């Protein structure tokens, strides 16, 4: 990300500006708006949300005066307002990709079907798309990337999201020729696969967050999804279904992420995993075949080897997203994307005994949690990807608690965008 400060400042000095269209004015979207208002060469020119007051409040908190905020659902009015320097609020997300005065679109909805639709529309209208929606990416990301490549635009995950932060460590180590043993992230709460909105409600209220969103962190789905995105970007796979998820401190990681014959826990290298104890950081375990490199690493106090840990102790979520926006617009490059296609998938597992006729209620709900497995295992089991679950899917037969939900267990009552894109991806595989 070096040099973007100077490039953005030069762009602004020359009278240019990266015009950002945002979908979703929740916590991530609000942070993005405020961060960009303090930057050179970039502005959030239009934001879509079901609740326009959320958008206006976000703009106000970023220092945009009411006199420069316009609410409209009209295409011409929106485009003209942006050209005149206004910040536009709209309930019509479909409007944004059609606007000539928008360069890059950001999806910050966190909802797989909506995110897939936003991305597809952006690509169809030849706009770069930045996804703060890992759930959509791990479900149809390879297909969206292909469509974007064909259209000559950038499809990318976001800097600041843990997959993006991990990818920075991976690319740094890979470019230098290190052997990368493992990639991972910290998890800041104990895994509880039975967590649901009711069990998470009290803590969510104290934190000012959604009970469903918090449950998706507690039940491990978010971690599984994030590491699936890393797997599909790097070609790495989980060492075991669901990953190891050991509790450990930073100094223990080089030994822990060694092969079993060397006293570690791994059956193979080039794996993805998570650790309870190093949150909110991300890490890469690296090694080398060169003795001189080992000698230098020891001199630099990186440990005794043969494995070493690269650790980034923070990720700033949507506050870093502007860097991915700039990279897409200025360099036509992604921060992270599924370069290897579907290497791993996060599949749905029953949180409780489910009965025939019961509808699935989505990520972080009462029905299912996510578990990462290899893509080959998903195909063999015909397992249902977690990003497809929702009230439009009903069970056609009983599924026992802890069992993977398969396509044989369900019936689809209504097709949606993410299902259609998934079908296109599989038909073109």
Short description:
The mean pLDDT is 96. This protein has a seven-stranded parallel sheet with strand order 3-4-2-1-5-6-7, sandwiched between helices. It has a five-stranded mixed sheet with strand order 9-10-8-11-12, with helices on one face.
Task: Characterise the protein shown here.
It is a single chain. Helices cover 37% and strands 18% of the residues. The chain has helices at 4-13, 27-37, 52-61, 75-83, 112-124, 134-151, 162-175, 197-207, 211-218, 221-234, 253-256, 291-299, 321-331, 375-381, 417-427, and strands at 18-23, 42-48, 69-71, 87-90, 104-107, 128-131, 155-157, 179-187, 237-238, 271-276, 282-287, 308-312, 344-350, 368-374, 393-395, 410-412. The strands form 4 sheets. It has a 7-stranded parallel sheet with strand order 3-4-2-1-5-6-7, with helices on both faces. Strands 9-10-8-11-12 form a 5-stranded mixed sheet, covered by helices on one side. Helix 6 (134-151) crosses helix 15, helix 7 runs parallel beside helix 10 and helix 8 (197-207) packs across helix 9. The longest helix has 18 residues, at 134-151. The mean pLDDT is 96.
């Amino acid at each position: 990300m070096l040099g973007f400060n100077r490039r953005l400042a030069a762009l602004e000095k020359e009278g240019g500006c990266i015009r950002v269209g945002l979908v979703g004015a929740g916590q991530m979207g609000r942070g993005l708006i405020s961060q960009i208002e303090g930057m050179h060469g970039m502005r959030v020119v239009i934001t879509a949300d079901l609740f326009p007051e959320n958008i206006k409040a976000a703009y106000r908190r970023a220092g945009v005066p009411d006199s420069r905020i316009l609410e409209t659902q009209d295409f011409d009015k929106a485009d003209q307002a942006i050209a005149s320097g206004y910040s536009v609020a709209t309930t019509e997300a479909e409007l944004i990709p059609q606007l000539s005065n928008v360069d890059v679109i950001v999806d910050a909805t966190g909802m797989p079907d909506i995110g897939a639709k936003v991305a597809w529309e952006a690509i169809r209208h030849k706009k770069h798309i930045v996804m703060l929606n890992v759930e959509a990416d791990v479900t149809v990301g390879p297909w969206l990337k292909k469509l974007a490549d064909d259209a000559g635009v950038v499809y990318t995950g976001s800097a600041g999201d843990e997959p993006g932060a991990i990818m920075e460590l991976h690319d740094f180590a890979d470019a230098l020729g290190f052997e990368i043993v493992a990639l991972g992230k910290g998890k800041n709460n104990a895994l509880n696969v039975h967590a649901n909105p009711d069990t998470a409600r009290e803590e969510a209220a104290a934190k000012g967050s959604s009970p469903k969103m918090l449950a998706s962190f507690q039940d491990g789905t978010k971690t599984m999804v994030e590491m699936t995105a890393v797997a599909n970007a790097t070609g790495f796979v989980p060492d075991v279904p669901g990953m190891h998820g050991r509790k450990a401190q930073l100094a223990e990681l080089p030994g822990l992420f060694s092969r079993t014959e060397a006293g570690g826990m791994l059956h193979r290298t080039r794996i993805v995993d998570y650790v309870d104890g190093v949150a909110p950081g991300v890490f890469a375990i690296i090694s080398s075949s060169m003795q001189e490199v080992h000698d230098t690493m020891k001199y630099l106090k990186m440990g005794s080897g043969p494995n070493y840990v690269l650790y980034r102790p923070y990720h700033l979520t949507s506050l870093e997203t502007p860097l991915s926006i700039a990279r897409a617009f200025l360099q036509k490059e992604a921060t992270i994307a599924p370069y290897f296609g579907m290497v791993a998938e996060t599949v749905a597992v029953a949180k409780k005994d489910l009965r025939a006729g019961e509808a699935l209620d989505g990520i972080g709900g009462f029905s299912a949690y996510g578990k990462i497995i290899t893509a080959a295992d998903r195909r063999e089991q015909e397992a249902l990807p977690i990003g497809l679950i929702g009230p439009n899917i009903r069970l056609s037969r009983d599924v026992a608690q802890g069992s993977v939900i398969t396509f044989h267990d369900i019936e689809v009552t209504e097709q949606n965008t993410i299902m259609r894109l998934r079908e296109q991806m599989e038909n073109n595989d």
